[in-house]
């Protein structure tokens, strides 16, 4: 999948020079001195001997992570470099899911972001995050907000920085992974996917709106749960920090030196400034318009 020449992209406010074609990322200009924030290279990588045979993540230190997938072995170092060893004949789209998902997300962790397993949207200039494990409906809920006229900041991950103790969300890249069935049913304002592979259940669809150039203040977090009806309720204070810890994207990295302390501290600061609620809803596409309406009603009913 490597291209003949490297290309420069932008993601999460970073310039990324990649040896792989990644159409989901917008092109960026290289600085006059040729410097970039992140490099993605292709090279042979040996599995660390200390890695658990059954694990897909291994932290040598807080500055050196490994992702151990069937599709590729990936080494992430110092928040600056991603080295990729693809499996033979791995489809381009499959590898891109690794690059712009787990690889970039773990690199953001090394760069000092609190990385939450969440999709985020911008509502009236404030970031709203939808938190949950894989398959919980984070992206679908973000699509509901997109259909309701809001901008999607990031898909499946929230890169949160603490700006003088106030959490802000850095927008990611202008694409989101959607089920073609949902796209056909609701016709959201997105562009058709590129270089798709038939075995992928979801594809990257390009967003038509611009991404904010500066971080957006985080105002609310919804914990997604299944339910027979659409309901929003408050989360007890003693549950809020634990909910954020459990939904940390880079949960496996907490064993690295210093990461657990930083993670717990960040969770505390987020709980102090952002409202956390539970959003229960039925898991079916027919409920999408009502879910968007409920979110809009809840946000406008009181101050975020």
From TrEMBL:
Protein name: HPr kinase
Gene3D superfamilies membership: P-loop containing nucleotide triphosphate hydrolases (3.40.50.300)
Domain of life (superkingdom): Archaea
The species this protein was found in: Haloarcula vallismortis ATCC 29715
């Amino acid at each position: 999948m490597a291209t003949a020449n490297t290309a420069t992209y932008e993601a999460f406010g970073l310039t990324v020079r990649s040896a792989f074609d990644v159409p989901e990322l917008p092109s960026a200009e290289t600085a006059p001195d040729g410097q970039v924030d992140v490099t993605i290279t292709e090279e042979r990588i040996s599995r660390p001997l200390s890695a658990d045979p059954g694990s897909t993540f291994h932290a040598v230190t807080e500055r050196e992570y490994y992702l151990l997938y069937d599709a590729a072995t990936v080494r992430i170092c110092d928040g600056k470099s991603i080295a990729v060893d693809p499996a033979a004949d791995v489809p381009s789209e499959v590898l891109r899911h690794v690059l712009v998902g787990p690889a970039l997300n773990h690199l953001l962790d090394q760069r000092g972001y609190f990385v939450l397993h969440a999709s985020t949207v911008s509502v009236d200039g404030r970031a709203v995050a939808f938190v949950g494990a894989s398959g919980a409906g984070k992206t679908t809920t973000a699509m509901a907000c997109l259909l309701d006229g809001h901008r999607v900041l990031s898909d499946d991950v929230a890169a949160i920085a603490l700006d003088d103790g106030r959490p802000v969300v850095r927008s990611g890249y202008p694409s989101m992974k959607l089920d073609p069935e949902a796209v056909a049913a609701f016709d959201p304002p997105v562009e058709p996917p590129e270089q798709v592979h038939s075995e992928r259940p979801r594809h990257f669809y390009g967003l038509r709106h611009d991404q904010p150039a500066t971080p957006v203040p985080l105002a609310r977090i919804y914990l997604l749960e299944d339910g027979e009806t659409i309901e929003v309720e408050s989360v007890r204070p003693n549950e809020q920090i634990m909910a954020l810890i459990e939904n940390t994207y880079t949960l496996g990295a907490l064993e690295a030196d210093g990461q657990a302390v930083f993670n717990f501290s960040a969770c505390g600061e987020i709980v102090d400034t952002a409202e956390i609620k539970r959003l229960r809803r039925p898991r079916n596409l027919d409920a999408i318009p009502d879910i968007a309406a409920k979110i809009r009603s809840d946000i406008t009913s009181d101050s975020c």
